[in-house]
Design a protein that fits this description.
CATH superfamily of the largest domain: ATPase, nucleotide binding domain
Radius of gyration: 22 Å
Shape: globular
Number of helices: 13
Strand content: 15-25%
CATH architecture of the largest domain: 2-Layer Sandwich
Strand order of the largest sheet: 3-2-1-4-5
Distance between the termini: 27 Å
CATH topology of the largest domain: Nucleotidyltransferase, domain 5
Number of domains: 2
Order of helices and strands: EEHEHHHEHEHHEEEHHHHEHEH
Length: about 375
């Protein structure tokens, strides 16, 4: 099998993501060239040289969402997700690699495919969904003699921040990440490419899960989190006194199950048994109060982690990172408490699951000179941790 090295001047990598309800394929290039005329310049650190000499470009990127399909069921159905991935992945790979042209012209060799390696999500995620992407990656690795790089989905979210060009200019280790999504809420300190220290996790529900589950209690359609945040724009965040679980706890861990329970009890007390729904100002005020509670906890824990770990930069990643209130409050709090920490922009359009972040994480694995297993040994790891 052809090997790929971080010492190559240019690397082209294919990224495949099928961990949940988004099918995505991306093609990225990484150019490894020294952009400094004088590496001996004493003002340039080792990390500066290492990080900023990489030029990354997204050449192609396609995402097929399954939200309309799963909205019928009020949540993701694993088997439906897996079956949908099959058809969508074939279509997206065709659009990315022009596979149909090889079928139309069978004499044309596919062994010279225009990329060097394949990065595919191995976990965490839904087992059946993960295997769709993995089997596709294994097939391409075998047929085209390419390296197959199994990627941790969580590392992919971290790598999404690297895809923002302005962030790479300030990419100096250590970097503190707040990873907030439907299934994960973690504070992670990245000390080098491929090297991470988990500072905290959620002990129960993730922040995204708290958004989605409280939204469902309010009768909002799936996915409810973004709809709750939109309604919150018109509400009063101080209207309801909701708990901020573990905000004063000495640990950096999170907990959102208590908030969810408090919202359920509040709804039951303020609505009839016939129709458990709030409307009008009551609805928007409760949405605003829920969002304020979640954001306040996330910001408080992040600031505490930044003071303790003293990072050079900070980034918020994952689906919930698209929340405008969270972005504003994090930036404001860090500027006040940790003014020397550079705030890295959330990568626009790359908050949720996507193939570009998986390809970027694959590039990180190459840069870190990690050894990759043979394609035959790659398998789904639904419970994979960072």
């Amino acid at each position: 099998m052809a090997k790929v090295s971080g010492k190559q001047k240019e690397i082209k990598i294919l990224g495949i993501e099928t961990s949940c309800d988004e099918t995505s394929v991306a093609l990225l290039t990484l150019r490894n060239g020294n952009i400094f005329k004088h590496k001996q310049d004493t003002n340039i650190t080792k990390d500066d040289v290492r990080c900023t000499l990489y030029v990354v470009r997204i050449k192609k990127h396609f995402i097929a969402t399954q939200i309309p399909i799963h909205a019928r069921y009020g949540g993701v159905v694993p088997e439906v997700a897996a079956r949908t991935h099959v058809a969508e992945l074939v279509s997206l790979l065709d659009k990315t690699l022009n596979l149909s042209s090889h079928v139309a012209r069978p004499n044309r060799s596919t062994s010279k495919a225009d990329f060097d390696a394949i990065a595919v999500t191995e976990g965490p995620g839904l087992a059946t969904a993960l295997r769709v992407g993995i089997e596709a990656g294994k097939t391409l690795a075998w047929s085209l003699d390419k390296s197959l790089i199994p990627v941790n989905h969580l590392e992919g979210h971290l790598a999404s921040a690297w895809l923002e060009p302005s962030n790479r200019k300030n990419w100096e280790f250590p970097i503190l990440f707040l990873l907030v999504s439907g299934g994960h809420t973690e504070l992670v300190l990245m000390t080098d490419f491929g090297k991470y220290k988990i500072l905290s996790r959620t002990r129960d529900d993730a922040a995204g899960e708290a958004f989605d589950k409280t939204a469902k209690m309010l009768g909002l359609e799936y996915p409810g989190g973004p709809k709750l945040s939109k309604l919150a724009d018109d509400g009063n965040p101080q209207a309801y006194d909701l708990p901020r679980p573990m905000i004063h706890d000495v640990s950096l861990d999170f907990s959102f199950s208590g908030l969810k329970t408090a919202v359920r009890i509040l709804i039951e007390r303020r609505t009839s048994n016939v129709e458990r729904r709030l409307k009008g100002k009551q609805l928007t005020d409760l949405c605003a109060s829920i969002q304020a509670a979640i954001v306040e906890v996330l910001v408080a824990k992040t600031v505490k982690a930044a003071i303790k770990s003293k990072p050079k930069a900070f980034a918020v990643v994952g689906g919930v990172s698209a929340n405008k209130m969270l972005q504003v409050e994090l930036k404001k709090a860090l500027k006040k408490k940790c003014p020397d920490v550079k705030f890295l922009k959330p990568a626009k359009g790359l908050h949720t699951d996507n193939g570009a972040m998986i390809a970027a994480a694959g590039l990180w694995n190459i840069i870190a000179n990690k050894k990759f297993p043979r394609w035959e040994k790659v398998d789904a790891k639904p419970e994979l941790d960072l």
